[in-house]
Amino acid sequence: MVSYLSDRRMDLAEQLLRQGNCTVAKVANRVGCAHLRHFATAFKQRFGITPSQCLAGKLADFE
Questions:
Q1: pTM assigned to the model
Q2: Which of 17, 20, 36, 56 is deepest in the core (most CB within 10 A)?
């Protein structure tokens, strides 16, 4: 159950970052991650790119 919720949060974070109208810190806060470093690590593990790269419009390794 925890993994499912984490995945959904990361999916939402990716969508918000791709929209490009929020900072990485605001996205992390919005999806419930208080520590930016933890958020960035989890995001990179899930998508293969950093949140900043996603915000800049980079494609994930698996796309």
A1: 0.85
A2: 17
